[in-house]
Amino acid sequence: MPKSFNQQIIEEFRAGGGKVGGPFEGGDLLLLTTTGAKSGEPHTVPLGYVRDGGLHLVVASNLGAPRHPAWYHNLLAHPVVRVEVGTEAYEAIAVPAEGARRDELFERVVRAAPGYGDYQSRTTRTLPVVVLERPDHGAGETPGEVRTLADKFLEIHTWLRGQLRHIRDEADAHLAARAAHQGPGEPPPPGLGLQIRQHCLAFCEGLTHHHTGEDDHVFPALATRHPQLREPLDRLRDQHRTLARLKERLLALLADIATADPVRFRAELDRISEELTRHLDDEEKWLLPALAQIPFPPTPPAQEAG
């Protein structure tokens, strides 16, 4: 089967360290890998981008077509994406800009790449400008070198704590802005922003992935190697179930951000923050000594001589 045009560009990009020829030669091009909204499978597309400081911006132009491209629907469902620029690759959270910020960023994009203005003129839909945000660990925390499974756990825990702090800060800013636009005697306007939604979805997906890996692989292995940890492991599993229920309550509020109650959302954040803090502290206290004995990445088994 002949390769698609996109696949040819992707292969040329990776083989040439981010450089391609033909109509894209000399242009700013990146590869964006999203997770399919329906399939759950990875999908990679080459996209033009514009720099905004240290961030990369991509526009869901679809060449001015009336519908958003598939990759945009994917990142709305699964905000964590993989970005390849030149020889660099990193994981990002994809956040569509909103309101005045979207308009400001789109103006910057059009100044750098006027073709996007032409695409906007072809359609009545507002072309989304997506900011590809690098992971933010918060409070100046950065993960150290990962040599053992304990190091990897601390890296993941740092990310989870940082994301939760970031979401709480965004929710507080949203509540303050909401109060500022509330007229005398008026009820506060409902709704949450896309930025809060995307970061919260990324946090929830990360938490689910981490706990699934623990329940399916890490905890059973530790229980076998360290029988004295079986009771603490049972307690940690109970905490996983509690956190899963709290996470589902957050996700239910995100199902329709236009009508979501920001005050209730902030209260649910406090509940999951308190439970997660206790859980991560317990996990580190009980498991890190055993996890520090396990190299990461795992050492491949030695092959037998033929």
TrEMBL record:
SUPFAM superfamilies: FMN-binding split barrel (SSF50475). Belongs to the F420H(2)-dependent quinone reductase family. PANTHER family: F420H(2)-DEPENDENT QUINONE REDUCTASE RV1261C (PTHR39428). It catalyses: oxidized coenzyme F420-(gamma-L-Glu)(n) + a quinol + H(+) = reduced coenzyme F420-(gamma-L-Glu)(n) + a quinone. One of its GO terms (cellular component) is plasma membrane. This is Hemerythrin-like domain-containing protein. GO terms for molecular function: coenzyme F420 binding; oxidoreductase activity. It comes from the Bacteria. Residues 150-291 form the Hemerythrin-like domain.
